[in-house]
Write a structure and sequence with these properties.
single chain, about 130 residues, alpha/beta, TIM Barrel, four-stranded parallel sheet, 4 helices, 4 strands
Length: about 130
């Protein structure tokens, strides 16, 4: 049995294929996984996907958090929602969160939050 410790099944390219992906995982002897959220919608979707996977006898859990690339979307309301998500029995981790200085806010392909915003959002989540 294999365990995928970090997957993003909520990605817009993968989410519509969830049933097929779960079948391929089963065929590859992957029976457990952690589905990672990167903002509120993907964290909520990760939990919902885990519920569906559990119905197919997968051992699965999710994380909820704000990736530093999405830090510009973080509002005061997000803290309340994250606390609710973190209290879900299927949520086993806070994240994906942290600091990512590889790209900056002016990058043409992946515009990110400023370092200051990333730091603020990370500290808020940690508190």
């Amino acid at each position: 049995m294999f365990f995928d410790s970090h997957c993003h099944l909520t990605d817009e390219r993968l989410a519509p294929q969830l049933a097929d992906i779960l079948s391929r995982m089963r065929s590859a002897d992957v029976n457990a996984f952690v589905n990672i959220g990167t903002d509120i919608p993907s964290s909520q979707a990760a939990l919902e996907q885990c519920r569906k996977a559990a119905e197919r006898s997968f051992i699965c859990a999710a994380s909820a958090g704000f990736h530093p690339h999405q830090a510009n979307e973080f509002t005061d309301d997000c803290t309340k929602v994250l606390l609710e998500l973190w209290n879900d029995p299927l949520c086993v981790a806070a994240g994906e969160m942290g600091l990512d200085y590889f790209y900056d806010e002016n990058h043409p392909e992946f515009p990110c939050a400023s370092r200051e915003t990333q730091q603020k959002v990370l500290l808020t989540q940690l508190q």
